[in-house]
Every structure is written in C-alpha cells, then in structure tokens.
C-alpha cells in the first residue's frame, strides 16, 4: 500500500543547451516519477528571464503540450516531490525561484539536511522570513546572506555549512549547477545529448531522452555547466570523507534499469535474491515476487535455488498514489486495489514470496493472507534486506521506530503476526556482499543504527521536527 511504503523525497532532472530542454525535462521527470508523486515543477531560462510552472499531482497530468510550449527555452531544471502529510502544498513544490543580489536563481533539492532547523532558527532570529518549510529555502537564505553572496566562493562556503544528504540542481541565467553532498547519499549523474548536457537523479531517465551516461557527480563536487563547458570544483576533500551511499536505493527506491553508485540496480537485486536463497533456503514449489521492486531479487532467488519462478501477484499500474480507500461494508481491501493474487499459480503450492522490505507490517500481512485465501499450501516470506529498526535522517520517510514492524518482535512473533510458515531476512553482511564498493562506503543506518552523521549531535532538540517536516 502506498501510504505504508517508505517514501523517497525527490527526483531531479535538468538540461543545459537544447532547444527542447523543457520537453526533455518533462520526459526525464516522468522517468523519475517513482521518486515523488505529490508535486512536480519545471523552470526554464533563455539566458535572461525565468519561466516556471509547478503543480500538484503526476507529471503527465501537470504538463500539457501548451504548458511545455510556454516553457520552451534552451535550459531547464525540473523536480518531482514527495512530502509528508501537512506539507504537501504548492508553496513547498519545486524548483523554487528567487531573485537575490546576484540575480535570478532556481533551486531543486533531493535529500534531507540534518542541520536545516538550526540554520533556519539562526536566520529567523536575525529577522529572515521563510515562505516554505523546505530545506531548499534554508540553502537559498545561506546563499543570499551578504557574507556569502558577495564572496567569490559563495557556493563552496554554503555547501560547507549544510550537513546531511543533498543533491542540488541550481540554475542561473548562464549556468546549470549540479551538487552532491560530501558522502554521496543520493545518486546524481551527468549525461549528454549531442552538445547538450543533462543531469538526473537516476540514469533510467537518460535512456528516455536519448542521452548517453557520462559519469556520476562526485560526492563533494560542484559541477558548473555553461556555454564554456564543464567546470568542476570541490567543497570537501574526498580523501578525508568516506562515501555513505544509501543502500536502500539499491534495494527499493531506484529503478531496476538505473545505474546507481556505479552499478546496475537490477543486477544488484538479483545478487540480493541469490544471497537470500543461500542464507534462507526452504523446500518449496514456486518462487514469486511482490512486484515490482522485488522482481529482480525473485529471479536471483530462483537462479540460486533452482525452484521454479512464476507470477503470483499482478500489480495494477494505473493506480496512483492516492485513491479512495474502501469504506466499511465494501469487501475490497486497499492492498487489493494495487495488487492481486494469481490464484491459478499459487493454489496447492508451497510458495516462497520475495519482497524488498517490511515497514509497518500491515500491508504485508494482508498480502500473505490473500495468498492463503487463494489456496497457497505453505507461504515462506523472504526479505531482501535486514529488518528495519531505526529511522532515516537522510531523506527517506519511514514509520517512527515504535511503528516499525521489526521493533521488539522475534522471528516467531513476525511469523505469527503475518500468518506465514517462515520468515527470512537477508543479513547485513549478506546485503553488503551484493554491492561492489567496500562495505564502509554504504549507509546502513536504518538497519544498524550506525549513523555517519549523528542526528543528535547535529540536530539536538530539533531531531523529531526535522524528521517530520517536508
Ligand atoms: Fe538509506 Fe537507510 Fe541510510 Fe536512510 S538510513 S540513507 S534509507 S540506508
């Protein structure tokens, strides 16, 4: 179910130097729609004026042909956004456009700053007024502050002040600027279409617009793209800061056809599934996936175990994030609106179900019950990551720790609650074995509680506020 799944906050896409930049950005945002479905926006420039359009809902519903025509310019940046309830409004949608002492600036942001509230309090104490509740506006205030705005190293100075996970796409009349935090929590890549450059949260969007992948924006890099070409500078020393890539991008968030942190997501997921088969083997008749993020892992489980792979669930691709929840007296359950069991596949079978995670457990419980009701003889649930036990402070919206399914539950408790014959989670070591960089280069904090940037240190009393704000 949508509202119980973990939520990524945003996706970024931008084009510099193509007459159809706005249309390409619209296509790019459609490919990134899985990273945020509540609002979307595009800002374009002819090198002088900025034109913007932002709306609530899905990219395809917001950007009509006439709106895209009105945005026609050679440079554009765009954003898709997810936000927590209460802050989902057009004011908080992005990109944001401001005029400050250096001229026009547009900003689009993906991630979460752990010191945003502290910085905001400091600005407010000195009289600044904020229009939104977003971290992006804090960054804009930093850039507009006189001690930074007039400094030749304005961006470097500002990036050194903000802490946490962030990918930024900035646009001035003459430049598009891509920035990634010093630990590289979220993915951000550079591509090329002819003489034009594109930047995207995920490479799957490059394929859609016919761009070739050039490279990732490096952690701690500020990449300026202008008519003079590319100019790269750093605001952190890569020899001193270890990367901390979000491993959950590989498990769940990113699309399987993207290249993330140097490798294809589908292949990582296949390895996760194969490892899961090694760690939690079971005698069964078929392997099925909970589509779509567990499809690749189920294939890996099947490859390694030799147990037949089949379709046990079918997802309705036309259900958006929001739909009318079934009322009492209607037998349909919310989960069924999105996902239906193929009874002919599972009836009388011993079924291994591969899924990517269990957050609150209620949706998983409903899925498992539907398998039983369809006649599955045995149900063995296999999860392609370790149990989620801790909150994420770096841009992913999980349940609170007390709401997390695995908190204070033994495997027996889980089995009983979910109504299955067995439950098996991948180990932390097993998960890290399936990715290509050294284990120390990945964030696993929501599984291990090992936070590279300590939330208490950085956020003090603002910790909870930060997690719940947009
Ligand atoms: Fe990703 Fe979990 Fe780390 Fe958040 S805490 S960045 S979801 S691995």
The ligands found in this model are:
iron/sulfur cluster
Distance between the terminal alpha carbons, to the nearest Å?
21 Å
For the secondary structure, the number of strands is 26
Say what the CATH topology of the largest domain is.
Answer: Glutamine Phosphoribosylpyrophosphate, subunit 1, domain 1
Number of domains: 2
Beta-strand share of residues: 25-35%
**Rough outline:** globular
CATH architecture of the largest domain: 4-Layer Sandwich
Largest sheet: 7 strands, antiparallel
CATH class of the largest domain: Alpha Beta
Q: Please work out how many helical segments DSSP would assign.
A: 19
Please state the CA-atom Rg, rounded to the nearest Å: 23 Å
Q: Which structural class best describes the helix and strand composition? A: alpha+beta
- The CATH superfamily of the largest domain turns out to be Aminohydrolase, N-terminal nucleophile (Ntn) domain
Tag the structure with descriptive keywords:
470 residues; alpha+beta; Glutamine Phosphoribosylpyrophosphate, subunit 1, domain 1; Rossmann fold; 26 strands; 26% strand; globular; disordered C terminus; binds iron/sulfur cluster
């Amino acid at each position: 179910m949508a509202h119980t799944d973990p939520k990524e906050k945003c996706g970024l896409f931008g084009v510099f130097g193509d007459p159809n930049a706005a249309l390409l950005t619209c296509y790019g945002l459609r490919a990134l729609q899985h990273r945020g479905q509540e609002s979307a926006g595009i800002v374009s420039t002819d090198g002088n004026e900025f034109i913007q359009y932002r709306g609530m809902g899905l990219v395809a519903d917001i950007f009509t042909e006439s709106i895209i025509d009105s945005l026609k310019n050679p440079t554009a940046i765009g954003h898709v956004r997810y936000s927590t309830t209460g802050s989902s409004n057009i004011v908080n949608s992005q990109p944001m456009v401001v005029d400050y002492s250096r001229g026009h600036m547009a900003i689009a942001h993906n991630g979460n700053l752990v010191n945003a509230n502290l910085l905001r309090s400091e600005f407010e104490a000195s009289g600044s007024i904020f229009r939104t509740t977003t971290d992006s506006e804090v960054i804009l205030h930093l850039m507009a502050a006189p001690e930074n705005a007039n400094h030749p190293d304005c961006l470097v100075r500002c990036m050194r002040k903000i802490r946490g996970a962030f990918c930024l796409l900035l646009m001035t009349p003459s430049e598009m600027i891509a920035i990634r935090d010093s630990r590289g929590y979220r993915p951000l890549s550079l591509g090329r279409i002819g003489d034009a450059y594109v930047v995207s949260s995920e490479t799957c969007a490059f394929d859609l617009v016919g761009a070739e992948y050039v490279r990732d924006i490096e952690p701690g890099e500020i990449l300026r793209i202008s008519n003079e070409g590319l100019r790269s500078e750093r605001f952190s020393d890569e020899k001193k800061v270890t990367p901390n890539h979000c491993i959950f991008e590989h498990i769940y968030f990113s699309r399987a056809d993207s290249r993330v942190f140097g490798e294809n997501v589908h292949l990582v997921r296949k390895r996760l599934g194969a490892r899961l088969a090694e760690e939690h083997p079971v005698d069964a008749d078929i392997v099925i996936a909970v589509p779509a993020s567990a499809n690749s892992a189920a294939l890996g489980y099947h490859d390694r175990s030799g147990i037949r792979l089949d379709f046990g669930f079918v997802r309705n691709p036309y259900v958006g994030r929001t739909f009318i929840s079934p009322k009492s007296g209607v037998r349909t359950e919310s989960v069924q609106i999105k996902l239906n069991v193929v009874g002919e596949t599972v009836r009388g079978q011993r079924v291994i179900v591969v899924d990517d995670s269990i957050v609150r457990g209620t949706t998983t419980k409903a899925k498992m019950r539907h398998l039983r009701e369809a006649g599955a003889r045995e149900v063995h649930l296999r999860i392609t990551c370790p149990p989620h036990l801790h909150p994420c402070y770096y841009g992913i919206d999980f349940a609170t720790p007390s709401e997390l399914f695995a908190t204070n539950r033994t495997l027996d408790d889980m089995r009983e609650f979910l109504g299955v014959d067995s439950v098996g989670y991948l180990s932390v070591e097993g998960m890290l074995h399936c990715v290509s960089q050294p284990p120390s280069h990945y964030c696993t904090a929501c599984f291990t509680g090992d936070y590279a940037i300590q939330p208490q240190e950085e956020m003090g009393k603002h910790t909870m506020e930060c997690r719940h704000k947009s």
